[in-house]
Amino acid sequence: MEKIGILTSGGDCSGMNAAIRAVVRCAIYHGLSVSGIKRGFEGLIQNQLVEMDLSSVGGIINHGGTILETARCLEFKTEAGIKKAVDTLKKHRIEGLVVIGGDGSFRGAHELSAKWSVPTIGVPATIDNDIAGTDYAIGFDTAVNTALQAVDKIRDTASSLRRLFVVEVMGRQAGFIALETGLAGGAEEVLIPEKDTDLEKMCKKIVKGYQRGKRSSIIIVAEGNESGGAFRIAQQIGDRTGFEVRVSVLGHQQRGGSPTALDRVLASRLGAAAVEQLVKGNTDKMVGIISNRVEVSNLDYAWRFQKQTNLSLLRLIEILSI
Ligand code: F6P
To answer: How many helices (H) and strands (E) does the chain have?
Structure first.
């Protein structure tokens, strides 16, 4: 193997740049040259490539986003689209590919590997942290810390005015961001897609809390939860308690910003491990972190198995926020 390609795909997140840096520098260490593919699979189809060297990834470890840019590419889901992508790889003599992204991106990577024999390794990167085969995906820790900073600030104003806030965080159909932000932020309640919430019981608890002298309440709502979006839930709480409820939807700020140390370390370890897997001749694999060790799993594991949410955290939040 002499040359590999690298792309970032799907939703961006903090730490992708650190992963790109690790892949490029580790590949060069192993004597390989590296092509950076712009805008994910879309750039592969449209032949948008840049050559990467040591200095092309200098000064990026601390930056959010992705220097290679990213896209959610529908054309890659078609036979014709994949064919064009494979032609680009052949044209540039790219013999292996590192795909940095979430489970949607890994489905594309799996197609390339299983059906078109392109050696491909996935590096999990999504704020949602919903990828099986890794305890943490790159970007999750930064997103949680960003959400936590916002919750801490909201707590200041909530306590000053004795208010109740509903704060909505991202996470798609998973409650990982909500749970960790809620526990770390001392939230009174956390609503996640993985477990139904008894709104009546929740409201009684909130009222009781105020009666015993609480000055604020913060309810964290994961965007995919069953009871609806933050505004709908706020309305329901208001109707049941008579409280004036304020809403804050944190949105895309959770995807950006300088990555935390944890995300930079994770991205560096997984990026390097991905190159090592290609050098060893492996394909159709994902590198992940399990109990602080780099582990390798089959790419399809990422979406065939549902990553389990630690529901004991919900119980802990319930106990600690009484
Ligand atoms: O998957 C990452 C994520 O930020 C989800 O948490 C969110 O539901 C979605 O992407 C938002 O997508 P978009 O940036 O396309 O609005």
So the answer is: 11, 11
Give CA–CA dist 165/274, Å, rounded.
42
Residue with tokens 């008579």: 242
Q: Let me know whether 236 and 105 are in one domain.
A: no
Distance 123 CA to ligand 1 centre (A): 18
Query: Residue 227's pLDDT is what?
Result: 87
Q: How confident is the model at residue 31 (pLDDT cuts 50, 70, 90)?
A: very high
Ligand 1 atom, smallest distance to 252 CA: 4
The answer to whether residue 315 sits within a structural domain is no
Q: Are 40 and 16 contacting, i.e. CB atoms less than 8 angstroms apart? A: no
Number of domains in the chain: 2
Say how many C-beta atoms besides its own lie within 10 A of residue 279's C-beta: 17
* DSSP secondary structure letter of residue 307: P
Nearest residue (by CA) to ligand 1, atom 15, is 11
Are residues 244 and 161 part of one domain?
yes
- If pLDDT is split at 50, 70 and 90, which confidence band does 322 have? confident
Position 239 scores a pLDDT of 96
Domain assignment of residue 314, yes or no: no
Q: With 90 as the cut, is the pLDDT of residue 228 above it?
A: no
Model confidence pLDDT, tens digit, residues 167-201:
999 999 999 999 999 999 999 999 999 999 999 99
- Counting ligand 1 atoms within 8 A of each CB, the residue from 128, 168, 252, 253 with the most, and so the one to mutate, is 128
Residue 260 to residue 144: CA distance in whole angstroms: 10
pLDDT band at 9 (very low <50, low <70, confident <90, very high): very high
Residues 266, 138 contacting (CB under 8 angstroms) = yes
* Percentages (nearest 5) of helix, strand, coil residues in the chain: 45, 20, 35
> Is residue 320 in some structural domain?
no
d(CA 103, CA 34): 24
**Residue 43 domain boundaries:** 3-139+259-304
